[in-house]
Design brief:
It holds the Pfam family DUF3558. InterPro entries: DUF3558. This protein is an alpha+beta fold. It has a single domain, classed as Protein Transport Mog1p, Chain A (3-Layer(aba) Sandwich), CATH 3.40.1000. The chain contains three helices and seven strands, in the order ααβββββββα. Strand 6 and strand 7 form a beta hairpin. The relative contact order is 0.22.
Length: 202
């Protein structure tokens, strides 16, 4: 079975699991309920998020997401063949420029970097079937996001880089081989690398 097919199968499993994920396996905030519709029974962790901390402002407008990770960084992450395809990771109706790179070894996984320019990280403090916790990446305020009720999904680290803008990095494994902590460590590593490169582009 090809790697592409494996990725598609993994995404479908996440979608069918009933978790708050889109067709690519990415977690998403729960949309507001309409009149007469019950509120979701599962919500994200509640916390008072601190004011955003940014060592510098990194504007993402017009940036190629596939430029966020260099060839050397891709090799370090053990992925290759970046593919650019916009994804609506923030569910704003405006797909964000996204670059996905797939693994080169025996373990099958991918890293996706989305550059969201129309919604900040405060989006993830809403309701939904997500476990959201404050984090910090290279001195920038961030959130770690994973699906509730499973340790076999994925992990996202999304970083506040400017008002209304975020760098959304997803680590998505296919099959076993990674604990939830390892998934989140990998997502954070990808985010650290992307931030380091993005600061050289602007």
């Amino acid at each position: 079975m090809s790697r592409v097919r494996f990725l598609a199968v993994g995404a479908a499993v996440l979608a069918l699991a009933g978790c708050s994920a889109d067709q690519t396996g990415q977690p998403k905030p729960e949309t507001s309920s309409t009149a007469g519709t019950a509120a979701p029974t599962t919500t994200t962790s509640k916390f008072d998020a601190p004011p955003p901390v940014r060592p510098k402002v990194i504007k993402l407008d017009g940036v190629d997401p596939c430029a966020a990770l260099t060839a050397a960084q891709l090799k370090q992450l053990k992925v290759a063949t970046p593919v650019s395809k916009p994804l609506d990771v923030a569910k704003t109706g405006n797909p964000a420029p996204t670059c996905t790179s797939s693994s080169t070894g025996s373990q099958i996984f991918s890293y996706s970097v989305s550059l969201v320019v129309d919604r900040g990280v405060d989006l993830w403090q809403g309701s939904g079937n997500l476990d959201v916790s404050p984090a910090q990446v290279s001195g920038f305020s961030a959130f770690q996001i994973k699906l509730k009720g499973t340790s076999k999904g994925d992990c996202v680290v999304t970083v506040d880089v400017a008002d209304g803008q975020q760098v959304f990095v997803q680590f998505l494994p296919i099959g076993d081989g990674f604990t939830q902590d390892q998934m989140c460590q990998n997502a954070k590593q990808g985010a650290e690398m992307a931030l380091a490169t993005l600061q050289t582009l602007k």
